[in-house]
Amino acid sequence: MRKFKVYIADDHTLFRKAMVNLLRSFDRVEEVKDAENGKDLLALIKYDVPDVAIVDLQMPVMDGAETCEQIIKKHPEVKIIILTMHDSHKYILHMMEMGVHAFLLKNTEPTELEKAIYSVAEKDFYHNDLVASVLRKNITERKTGQRPHFKHAEITDREKEILILICRELTIREIGHKLSLSENTVRNHRVNIMEKIGVNNTVGLVKYAYDAGIVS
Predict the structure, then answer these.
(1) Which whole-number Å values give the CA distances from 194 to 29, 33, 190, 199, in the listed order?
(2) Three-state DSSP class for residue 24
(3) CB atoms near residue 62 (< 10 Å)
(4) Which residue, 72, 115, 170, 186, is most buried by CB atoms nearer than 10 A?
(5) Which of 138, 167, 192 delimits the end of a domain?
(6) Which residues contact 121 (CB under 8 A, 6 or more apart)?
(7) Quick check: is 216 in a domain?
(8) Does the keyword Phosphoprotein apply (predicted)?
(9) Is residue 144 part of a domain?
(10) For the chain, how many structural domains are there in total?
């Protein structure tokens, strides 16, 4: 079973070191490195690219938002999990649009952190209650007549089925098994959906599914 390299950036030393010890206890995490700010994290990534980067939002020198922007620009293969004390939906929505793969509150249970790491590494996104509440609130607050930031697209019933299962965090293989389709067919459908709506990652697919009312 595949194992993962995980880096964490947080300026609170006690919390960061406790997180390092926790991460090392996870069965499928084989290497952990830590940094006290975004600048140091980027230096680590430049030297040796991880599978997952866990980033605190509020840090000195370089904060979480700028750090994530730089990681996405320079190392788009790295999956990013944001740790935050606050569930500010506008901030989370902005960072979803930027391409961040998961959001966890700092009081999250260790089991959820472990699940999130494996999910972003293997499925490109972690769809938890925090993300769902942010997307639902965004739909509620959208002004009458304001259009979602997606291309107009005619999504077929099969594509809707696949989109719903992607939002449920099923892998390509699991979707194929559930719908009696080959993995290549599922993969092709996924690519077609992304092209139709003008997104390039799973985060965009999930956001579209909420905006279009496919997932509620």
Answers:
(1) 31, 34, 6, 5
(2) helix
(3) 17
(4) 186
(5) 138
(6) 2, 4, 51, 52, 79
(7) no
(8) yes
(9) no
(10) 2
- The residue whose two tokens read 């092209």 is 195
User: 27 — phi, psi (to 5°)?
Assistant: -55, -40
Neighbours of 59 (CB within 10 A): 23
In terms of Cα–Cα distance, which of 68, 79, 85, 113 is closest to 12? 85
pLDDT band at 168 (very low <50, low <70, confident <90, very high): confident
- Give domain status of residue 134, yes or no: yes
66 lies in the same domain as 41? yes
Are the C-beta atoms of residues 202 and 193 closer than 8 Å to each other? no
Both 17 and 58 in one domain: the answer is: yes
Residue with tokens 């449920």: 168
On whether the CB atoms of residues 161 and 174 are closer than 8 A, the answer is no
Range of the domain at 189: 150-211
Q: Where are the beta strands (DSSP E) in 75-188?
A: 79-84, 102-105
- CA distances to 11, 35, 50, 51 from 41, in Å: 11, 5, 11, 13
Give me the torsion for CA of 87, 149, 97, 58, rounded to 10°: -40
Residue given tokens 């904060």 in the structure block: 63
Give percent of the chain above pLDDT 70: 94
Kindly state whether residue 145 falls inside one of the protein's structural domains: no
33 - beta bridge partners?
A: 7
Whole-model pTM: value is: 0.82
Token look-up 């997307």 returns 135
State mean pLDDT over 45-51.
95
Same domain, 128 and 169: no
